[in-house]
Write a structure and sequence with these properties.
CATH architecture: 3-Layer(aba) Sandwich
Oligomer: single chain
Strand content: 15-25%
Largest sheet: 10 strands, mixed
Number of strands: 10
Structural class: alpha/beta
Strand order of the largest sheet: 5-4-1-2-10-9-3-8-7-6
Length: 274
């Protein structure tokens, strides 16, 4: 049996379809290269709307690389090349006629470390809306976004203060509010809790559970407990002998964590490697 046949046998083509959901974003034969290095091979993946999907796997397996493909962040790496398709609302976002800035507005991203701008709390939220030509009531948008990130009550009397004065957990929620302010359909999170303490981590996890009522969320995490706690679906990535990343298994989180189809998945989840 070929590797492709094995994947077809072990990965449901669209596990979300069983629950009646339509994919909000789809990767088709996605391959990523950094120079001559083949970083990720033949990823086929469907992401459901208003669900949390976790990407897990050992370091170097390509999970963050795939995540960055979903809003064309890899375009900012000169040696990166992406082949295949990423379809969002039926259109390939790598089509030459697609504006990557518009892609990033509609598919927001929260990074590993909080990265507020050296501006006021208010201006951190308003910045993205302004550059996208927002014509509505900015005060209302700022409040709505901060409420959406469960931060309004803590900062409503400090909006003109520098965002650097917030705690790490508050800064990360501010970055989530900043992403919300551009009215995205999908929010990507690349290890958003890795720099936070347990209390702040729990706050972010609780926030994700609230946000998923409005957004599809994809989170990269090394924390197996976190993936099990917050996600509806989990994608396990692994590396082959040439250190090329590949999607090894994908399915509902409960099934993947309790009855994985691949031994490598079980070994990773149980801590035998990775």
């Amino acid at each position: 049996m070929t590797r492709q046949e094995q994947l077809i046998d072990t990965i449901p083509e669209n596990p979300q379809a069983k629950s009646g959901d339509q994919a909000v974003i789809t990767a088709e034969n996605l391959n990523v290269y950094y120079g001559n290095f083949h970083a990720v091979r033949d990823v086929n993946l469907h992401i459901a709307p208003r669900k949390i999907t976790a990407f897990i796997g050992p370091s170097g397996c390509g999970k963050s690389t795939v995540l960055r493909c979903f809003n064309r962040m890899n375009d900012l790496i000169p040696i990166a090349r992406v082949k295949g398709e990423v379809r969002f609302e039926g259109r390939n976002i790598y089509d030459p006629n697609v504006d990557p800035v518009e892609v990033r507005r509609r598919i927001g991203m929260v990074f590993q470390k909080p990265n507020p701008f050296p501006k006021s709390i208010y201006d951190n939220i308003a910045w993205g809306a302004r550059i996208n030509g927002y014509r509505g009531n900015m005060d209302e948008l700022v409040e709505e976004s901060l409420r959406g990130a469960a931060l309004w009550k803590e900062v409503k009397d400090k909006l003109k203060q520098n965002a650097y004065g917030l705690s790490g957990g508050q800064q990360q929620r501010l970055c989530i509010a900043r992403a919300i302010a551009t009215k995205p359909e999908i929010i990507l999170m690349d290890e958003p809790c890795s720099a936070l303490d347990p209390i702040a981590t729990l706050a972010i996890e609780d926030l994700m559970k609230e946000m998923v009522e409005k957004y599809a969320i994809i989170i990269v995490t090394h924390n197996m407990q976190q993936a099990a706690r917050v996600s509806d679906f989990t994608a396990f990535y692994n590396v082959d002998e040439g250190r090329t990343g590949e999607l090894a298994e994908f399915g509902p989180t409960k099934q993947l964590f309790t009855k994985p189809r691949q031994k490598a998945t079980e070994d990773y989840i149980t801590g035998r490697f990775g």
